[in-house]
Structure formats: C-alpha cells, structure tokens
Amino acid sequence: MEQYSVTGMSCAACQARVEKAVSKVPGVTSCAVSLLTNSMGVEGEAVAEEIIKAVENAGYGAAPMNNARSSGKISHAAEEELLKDKETPVLKRRLLSSLVFLIALMYFSMGHMLLGLPLPAFFEGNHAAMGLVQLLLTVIIMVINQKFFISGVKSVIHGAPNMDTLVAMGSGASFIYSVYALFMMTDAIVRDGAEAGAVWMNEFYFESAAMILTLITVGKTLEAHSKGKTTDALKGLMKLAPKTAVIIRNGAETEVPIEEVQKGDVFVVRPGENIPVDGEVVDGNSAVNEAALTGESIPVDKAEGDRVSAATLNQSGFLKCRATRVGEDTTLAQIIRMVSDAAATKAPIAKIADRVSGVFVPVVIGIALVTTAVWCLVGKEFGYALARGISVLVISCPCALGLATPVAIMVGNGLGARNGIMFKTAVSLEETGKVQIVALDKTGTITRGTPDVTDIVPAEGVTEEKLVRKAYSLEKLSEHPLAGAIAGYASGLGLVADEVSDFTALAGNGLRGTAEGRRLTGGKLDFVGKTAVISRELKEKAEELASQGKTPMFFAEDDAILGIIAVADTIKEDSAEAISELRNMGIHVVMLTGDNRRTAEAIGALAGVDEVIAGVLPDGKESVIRELKARGKTAMVGDGINDAPALTRADMGIAIGAGTDIAIDAADVVLMKSELRDVPAAVRLSRATLRNIHENLFWAFIYNIIGIPLAAGVFIKLFGWELNPMFGAAAMSLSSFCVVTNALRLNLCRLYDPSGDRRLKNAVITDAQGKLLSIKDEDKKEETRMTKTLNIEGMMCPHCEATVKKALEGLDGVKAAEVSHEKGTAVVELESEVAEGELKKAVEDKDYKVISIV
User: Fold this and answer.
1) What's the pLDDT tens digit per position in 329-366?
2) What are the backbone angles phi and psi of residue 581, rounded to the nearest 5°?
3) Nearest 5°: CA angle at 643, between 478 and 791?
4) Cα gap 224→699, rounded to integer Å
5) How far apart are CA 656 and CA 673, in angstroms?
C-alpha cells in the first residue's frame, strides 16, 4: 500500500470526493481516505504522479509519504511532526478573534434590547449608523473565517459541495439579506424619515451570519483538539524512539544520531537508557523492560545471544549489542507503520456513511431551497422563510458521518498497540469480534511448546534424588528434547551427573550407558522391561500418566528398576482461563494437534476446549480450517510461521507470540506476547470498537434525521418548535465533537476484564461429543444445554468416579455428571445456574481437589 498525505479536506463529502477521483485512475485497485489523519492509502499499479493529479483536479492537494519514509528521508521525528496537531492552535486564534468582534456585534444588535445596555448617544435613534456598524463587524468576522468561504466556493467549482459550502451559504445568505435590508432601510429613511427606517431593523440578520461562523469555529476547535487526542497512541510510539545511540568506533564510544547507526555496528546501553535499535547482546546481562512494545510490565532477563528491541528500557546492567535491524526495519518502526497503515484502511461498516456522505450536501442544499420556497408560498415573510432555509443549511453535519468510523478505528488500534495487540487493517479490527469459532494450535499456543518434568515416581527403596541423578547421567548425553527436560530439571536442583561410558542411543526405544561400573538403562516400558523387572504398580502409574497426556520414561540400574520420570509439554498458566473467557463469549474453541487421540483428549480436557481434533499434521491444518469455515466465521491462532497456510485460509489469522517478528504476512492480527489471554482481549477490543462505531453512526444519523426537519420548521404546527439559525449552528458545531469524544471513551476499555462479556448473537451449538452442529440464533440460545467441566485431582479408580458423580448429581440444578478418573474430569450438565463454589465444595467434601472449572 502506498500512502499519501492529503490537504484541503474539511468533511466527509471531501473524503468521498477524493476517494471517487482516485478510484477512477487506471491501475488503482482500491483507495481509502482518512479524514481523521488527512491521509490516503492506495493499492494498485498506478504511478504517484497520476494519483496526485487526480487529487488536485478534485480541488485538493496530495503528496506521497511511503517513498520518503522508505528512503529514510522521513525520521520518526519528522513523522511525529506530520501527526502534530497544527490545526487546533490556528483555530484557537481564529476563535478568540471572532469572539472579540462577536461580543461587540451582539452589544450593538441585541444588548440594548435584551439586556437594556446603554448605547453611545450618537447611535440613539440613528438606525443607519447601527446598521453600518453591524455590517462592519460582521465583515471583519467573515474575513477572519474566510476559509469557510474559500473552501466552500472551490468545492462548488469542482462539483463537490462540502460542509464549508453549507456554512458559507448559510452565513452568506444571512449577510446578503441583511445588506439588502440595510439598503432598504436607508432608502426608507431618505424618503419617509427615521421612523420608517426603524421597521427594517427587525430584518437584520448580521448577528446570525457572524454567530454561525463563530459557533462552527467553536465546534471545529473542539473537534480538532479531540482528533489530536485520537493519534496520541501513535505519537506516543514515535516518542519512544531514542534520538541518539552510543556506538563503538575505533575502540572508543561515540554518540551519534540514530539515523547514522548501521547494521553490524556495536552499541552500548547503560542502566536507565533506552535501547536505540534492534540488536543482539554480545556482552553483559541485564533486565530489560519491554512494556513499550508488548505491554508486559515484567522485565525480561537478557544475556549474551539474546535479542533486544529498540525503545525498550535497560533497567539494571551494562549491555554491549550488535545492531541487527535499523531504521524502518526495527520492531518499533514496524509497529508504527502497522498502526498507521491500519488507520489508512477502511472498515466495511464505513461504506454506509460513505454512500450517504457522497450525496449529503447536495441533498441538504435542495432541502434548504425547498424549505424557503414552501414558507414563502404559505404566506410567510421572505426573511422568516430565509431563516428556516439557513437553519437547514447550518444544522446539517456531514462531518459526524465521516468521522464516526475512522476515529473509533484509530483509538481502538492505538489501545491495542499499547497492549501488544496489533490489527493490520481496519477490516481485521472490525471482524475479529465477529468470529464464532477459534481454532488453537496446541504446541506453543495452549502449551509452552517445550517439555518439562511433571512427575517423579521412584521405585520402592529408591530416593527421588537418586532416580533423577541417574536419569540425568544418561540424558545429558542425548540431544532428544525430552532428555533436555530432564537435564534441565536436574541441573536446576544442583545435581551432578555421573560419568557415563559406552553410551548408546537406540532410536525410538531409549538409552544405555555405564556409570560407576553399573549398567544404566532409560526409555520406554518395553525397552527397559527387557533388562529390569517392573512392578504392576509402576505399570499402572505409567498408564495413568499417559492418559493425562504425559510421556512416562523408565530408568533402571543393572536389573533393578529405579522408577519413572514423566515429561510433558505443559499448559501455560493463562490457557485455561483464556479458553474459558472465549467460551463465555459464545465462541466455540477447537484444539488442533498432531498428538494421538488419547494425549490430545487429556490436554484438551485440562485446557477446557470444546472440541479436540487430533492427528493433524502441519500441512493438514489448512483443510481442517476450511471445514470449520463452512460452519461459521473462523479464527486460527498459531505461531505465524509453521501455521501460515492455516492462518491464511482462516477468516481471521491471529499470530501469537510474534515478539519482534511482527510483520507476519499470513496474519491479520499479531499478538506480541505469547499469552493466550490476548486472544479474548483482541475479541473484546474488536467488539468494543464496533459497538462504539455503531453508537457514532447512530448519533450522526439520528442527529441529521431529527435536526433537519426541526430546522425546516416541520414541528412548528405540531409542537410549536422553531429553531433559530444560531442554535442550528451551535448544534452542528457540537455534533462532530460528540462523535470524536465518544470514540475517545474506547481508551477506558478494560481489555482483560471479562465481566462485561456477552455471548455472540450468532454462536455455535454442539452435540454431546462437542462436535459442531450448526449456527444458532440468539432466540435459540436458551435451548442449548449449560455444561461445566471440573478438572479434578485425586481420582484413582471407578469407585472414585462413582463417589464424585453421586456428590455432583445430588446438587439442585445438576441434571447429570459424566466423570472420568483417567482424564481427571467431571462434565456436569446443568438444568439451571449452579454456583461454581457449590460444585467445588461438593467434590472437595469427598476429599478430592478441584483444580479448575471451565
């Protein structure tokens, strides 16, 4: 996507005009214009000169942004300058100047009548002088706010009237009619005397012309200030970039501007300093706070060989690093570009407002002309009829329509970026909250992705220390991942391995070696069972461990069994909670894994997923996603590399644990941290943003639907409601401000708080085995059964199952309970709501421990 800055836009009609003009350029496949950031994203093969020419022919200005950025000509400081709120200070000066002269105008036009304020003696009875002073003050205010007239006339010349056109017409009509009345009054005074001229004083609308311009400027100032706030997140990211770096040249430390750092340069970072560019630690160790990029406040330990990222804070030690990514290649630069690109794209819901904005201004002008004509035809004075037409012009607000979507998208994107949740486009931000099915890759997503020791089961007469030490002696010589888990566990305990000779690794079976003159054997049951006698109790324990998704490994010394060490890819701390939150949102959670069915079911039960699909090879995930998509809108959550085909096939691809590799092409949403709780947080943010857009659009439409008839005088006969043009201008000035302010409320969204979660209106229903059946509607929601899964520790046999089943089914509201001591679970079917505390108490009263409830 090529990005351009666009100048001269003032409302949604301008935005629609630019989009329409650029879309007609040969070679342009899509064009999205943002009124919020005054930017435009263009895709296709059209050359920049043709695009700029099309924008200029439409009456606006444009300049390419990407070329300068990619060539390094635009630094973060320059980009921050582009986003700087330059509009608000200018509008403030205009507003203050307008107010000074407006107060004087209101004093002469209404102060003596409404408030009884004294007038200078010269003006007593001198109506012509009063009219001339009002004329002069109004002209001054019109000159101060000449931008409305210049922009409004230009847009008419180019055949695309905008909001400025409405303001200029409303204020201009009031002024022209008032000038006409002033001439008529002067003529009447010349012919018939001062008393005859007094009649025309009531026909002056100078104060309305000036008040309209001033009030619209008030609204524009508030709107500009609020719009500036919506880009705070992006500007905050840019401010994180250090301006200088200390690099080592010719053996000496030299401070240079950040733009001069090259790939391969060695730089140093002292405690309390920000890391200037992405790099790799070559010397030293420290704790680095990466909250600026990932939202995670807990510092990460860094040592030689570890990666560091620009804008992160070195908290404790001295680091010497080699630059690996500089300039626009750093993680920070990619985040800034992603947030900026997302702002330049358009959400599907914005198309509704775009279609209306394209015809809004001409329709309003037509309504104003018809309104004036109708009131004249029914016998009202021309001044009265004109006031109704002017009210229609100045109350109508296309800006609110144009800002309804982009301000919410910008604020939502910024909030996500601060928490390590990156939406690549406005479409992904809108659509993520609509997913009905979430498919989770097991390894690295639900689990840690690396095996850990979970159970130590020594044989009778053998200590845990001896079992682990002997296993460590064998396994430290193996390169198998499971061996690494045992070696890491033993070294963590401070154990010292025995020297092993005659080491042999038998693929698919186990290990052999000799230590202290005795033969050590480790591996599978069948392999170790050939050299040692294994008791029935140990075999049963191994069966139980295997049923829990763990890998039991036997160890023996000569012909004596030492015991079992179980290893498993353990579930992350937040996985079960995150999956529970997704299910509470009405989302069907599926786990994909290449494990066998038994292991997969055990892990799935612990995690609390709705459905497990086992035996899925990496290249088979894409076909599984295709099947799930046929049943509902599907999101795939994976690491973004091995899962690329599945991420691409899914309606929404979510890459988790991206870290510094955020530019994952296959993903629509990139999660910087390796925490599954960011998935429900992303859904929550998407839903909150979409809800905010709906509120903004509702306000924008309902304001115009009610305001225009009110201004036209439709309700005068019914309720006696009559709108003065000045109040119409005040309403218009506040409408856009209200929309932008409402969007800023998104910053208050608590991404990790599930208390406000609601179930989807179109969730999915499943059968007893958790298989997807069909898409259900909101009105069928109550027909589905309520179930809870309890993960229970301590059940060893069918008798335990029966005890737990009886305890649970004895509770009011529990229809049935399916208990499995092998899986360590109890699936409870509820007829009515039962508190989790009651379920837990019923089980624990029978001396079993409830680990979690999902």
Assistant:
1) 887 777 777 766 666 666 677 666 667 766 777 888 89
2) -65, -40
3) 75
4) 19
5) 7
Is the distance from CB of 668 to CB of 347 less than 8 angstroms?
no
Distance of CA 602 to the CA centre of its chain: 34
3-class DSSP string for 30-89: EEEEECCCCEEEEEECCCHHHHHHHHHHCCCEEEECHHHHHCCCCCHHHHHHHHCCCHHH
For residue 645, how many C-alpha atoms fall within 13 Å in the half-sphere facing its CB? 11
Report for 82-96, 145-159, 449-463: range of highest mean pLDDT = 449-463
Quick check: helix, strand or coil at residue 458?
strand
Residue 447 and residue 570 in contact, taking contact as beta carbons nearer than 8 Å: yes
Over the stretch 725-754, which tens digit does the pLDDT of each residue have? 777 767 776 777 788 888 888 888 888 988
User: 786 near 833, Cβ under 8 Å?
Assistant: yes
Residue 325, classed as helix, strand or coil, is strand
Tokens describing residue 636: 């795939």
pTM across the whole model = 0.67
Using DSSP, state whether 680 is helix, strand or coil: helix
Chain Cα centroid distance, residue 464: 49
Match 């991420």 to its residue by tokens. 647
Q: Output DSSP code: residue 750.
A: -
Integer Cα distance of 430 and 758 in angstroms: 17
Does residue 678 sit in helix, strand or coil? helix
Burial (Cβ within 10 Å: 0-12, 13-18, ≥19) of residue 498: middle
* Partners of 269 in beta bridges: 319
Please list the active-site residues.
441
Classified as helix, coil or strand, 744 is: helix
Rounded Cα gap, residues 422 and 678, in angstroms: 11
Residue 500 contacts residue 520 (beta carbons within 8 Å): yes
DSSP of 94-147, one letter per residue? HHHHHHHHHHHHHIIIIIIIII-----GGGTT-HHHHHHHHHHHHHHHHHHTHH
Encode 466-522 in three state secondary structure.
HHHHHHHHHHCCCCCHHHHHHHHHHHHCCCCCCCCEEEEEECCCEEEEEECCEEEEE
